[in-house]
Amino acid sequence: MTISPATNSSAPPVVALRGIGKSFPNGTLALSGLDLDVRQGEFLSLLGPSGCGKSTALRIMAGLSEPTQGKVEWAAAGTQTRSGSIGFVFQEPTLMPWTTVFNNVRLPLKLAGVAAGKASARVGAALERVGLQDFSSVYPRELSGGMRMRVSIARALVTEPELLLMDEPFAALDEITRFKLNDDLLTMWQALGTTVVFVTHSVFESVYLSSRIAVMAARPGRVFTELGIDAPYPRGGDFRTSSEYAALCRRTSDALARAMAAGGGE
Amino acid sequence: MSAQASARERRERALRVALPAIVFALVVAAWAAAVWFWQIKPYVLPTPSLVAHTLVTDWPLLSQSLLVTLITTVEGFVLASLGGFILAVLFNLSRYVEYSLYPYAVILQVTPVIAIAPLLLVYMPQPTAVLVCAWIVAFFPVLANTTLGLRSVDRNLVDLFALYSASPARVMWDLKLPAAMPYLLGGLRIAGGLSLVGAVAAEIAAGSGGAGSGLAFRIMEAQYRLNIPRMFAALLLLCVAGLLIFYLLALVNYLALRRWHESALDGER
Description:
Chain A is of the alpha/beta class. Chain A has helices spanning about 55-60, 100-110, 115-130, 145-155, 175-190, 205-210, 235-240, 245-265; strands at about 15-25, 30-40, 45, 70-75, 85-90, 165, 195-200, 210-215, 220-230. Chain B folds into two domains: about 1-40; about 45-265, MetI-like (MetI-like fold), CATH 1.10.3720.
């Protein structure tokens, strides 16, 4: 089966960034004239050198940071209440160390006022999705780095959000763990039909995961070019070693090199 | 391997009890030997056995005083903990409150309590004045530590709470307070010892006797009467009371944090 749900460029945008600029009080211009459509159901990676403002763009989408120019347009017209329809995964697992895995995953439901009884089943399902159903009463410090990241993903998905934002979530993990989490993330993405925006500085990771890649340039941060990755899902070990994958990586690498030449990135 | 490790751990624990005990025995022996060798008079330096004997014979009087001092200390500690904690939360909720009151909290902290006590005694009955002194000395570490703790929250977690539109009350209750817990408990450990210091300092400043006189008063009184053995006995009780408070709070700290905080974790990882 060769479903490729999101390469379809006619899918409606979930959220669109229009002419986004962001300057910080210290005078740094992080983003300028950034245009980006995030389309329903796609797996979009923001790829760029460090300092190109990809995390800032993600934070603006999440509403954690206000743009100084331009605007963020949401498909669900008139709703500024994005809460509950967005999940966010940080670079670190960002778990509450003082409480159990179960309570960490339950947090978004608790903050949304979901009753404990109802929440319990959803937390169970979320933990099962990441394969941690047996660890619900464990404290975060008792888990490995990869497992903590799984908990963080379970927490982001427990509300079954429309949009999942991920800020270099696997950068700190070893390669074996990262590959495994890449595969599991793709499985969850296909099962849930969530739209994913994934920030990374790894060409290989972005090609493996994405249906589309927005290559960003720095100084000021902007989208330099967009690449569709048309390889069919599900992707696995075979895809990772295929010549098609190698060719796509080379193309993406070239685009990134041009972006860096244009943007003066390191 | 783990059996070996646990054997080493057990030896380590035994050493931690045995070594201080040996030091204690040596000091007491040296003390007794010095008194015997130089024929020091009991009203200058009593033998350890005389101190122990005095502790037994004066127990009805001393235990009464110990109780008075301990009650003052505990009351001062509880009020200081509540006061420091509530102030810290208020400071965190409103920086105007913080700006208005923080300098005065510092002033209370840096003014030696022994110098404030006589003035307090002018306006308050003695037990109240003693309690206020214990409070003044002990509340600041709770305030300062909790303030620091409430600010030391993982910024990503703050973002996460913002993402889910958590109310300020929820952020305080579910995020800031748990994050501040290790700092608060550290403040309490300091405050426990300081409440005893405050209570004793105020008792000494008060100086007047009567019923309800604490251990510090017993020490002063024994000094006037050249009853040096009783001074030592009362001092010993104060010392034990201080240790008791310290280890009790350390235990609370351990029980509250052992599941998650680095400071309270056991060796094995």
